[in-house]
Amino acid sequence: MNIHEINVELFRMINNLGKDFTYLNPVMTFISEYMVYFLAIGVLVMWFTGDKRGRMMIISAGITFITAEIVAEIAGIIHSNHQPFAELANVNQLIAHEIDNSFPSDHTILFFSFCSMFYLYCKRSGILWILLASLVGLSRIWAGVHYPADVIAGAAIGIFIALAVYMLVPKWGLMWKLLNLYEKVEQRILPGKRKQKNIGN
User: Fold this and answer.
1) How big is the CA angle at 44 (ends 40 and 48), to the nearest 5 degrees?
2) Which residues form the Phosphatidic acid phosphatase type 2/haloperoxidase domain (predicted)?
């Protein structure tokens, strides 16, 4: 059995669960399509309620995601495949999706870029974010819009770039200076917001 056959077999195993456990399909559909909005809300809440270290975490996560998307574009040139519902018969497709290159999974890249960074900054609560990212990746297979290889590649890209960014970006003095500058402007616009101690200069 070659890699492609293993990829298809794993996809069938996961996607067919939606045929056996139909009551879970609405949950998986919701996670696959709408959990991204909860991630966005969570990031905004952390930005406006967190301390300076928390903001650097979000900046690092954003840089991770942008870098990961660039790497993903290159990966997509090297290898490409359409969504499973476009290539295989009898796919349990739960959400509408245009046919394009599904390798690697952008949803998975997004979640693992942010959630891996959250884990690196705070391992105790970060494990829950990693579980969420994994669930999103699983839901994309369950919904019939990605192969396991699409998800695994997206997760790997997000994780490895998050590790590199975590080791580099917080050490750049320029990043802290830019953050301090932003917070001074923010204090002028939102004078009621509590002042935070400048660190990392």
Assistant:
1) 170
2) 58-166
Count Cβ neighbours within 10 Å for each residue of 106-129 and write b for 16 or more, e otherwise.
Answer: bbbbbbbbbbbbbbbbeeeebeeb
The CATH number of the domain holding residue 169 is 1.20.144
Q: How many helices (H) and strands (E) does the chain have?
A: 9, 0
pLDDT value for 201: 39
Domain hosting residue 59, numbered range: 3-189
Q: What is the pTM of this model?
A: 0.90
Q: Which residue stretches of 50-83 are H helix? A: 52-78
* Structure confidence by residue, pLDDT tens digits, 18-48: 999 999 999 999 999 999 999 999 999 999 9
Structural domains in the chain (count): 1
- Identify the CA nearest to 17 among candidates 117, 112, 91: 91
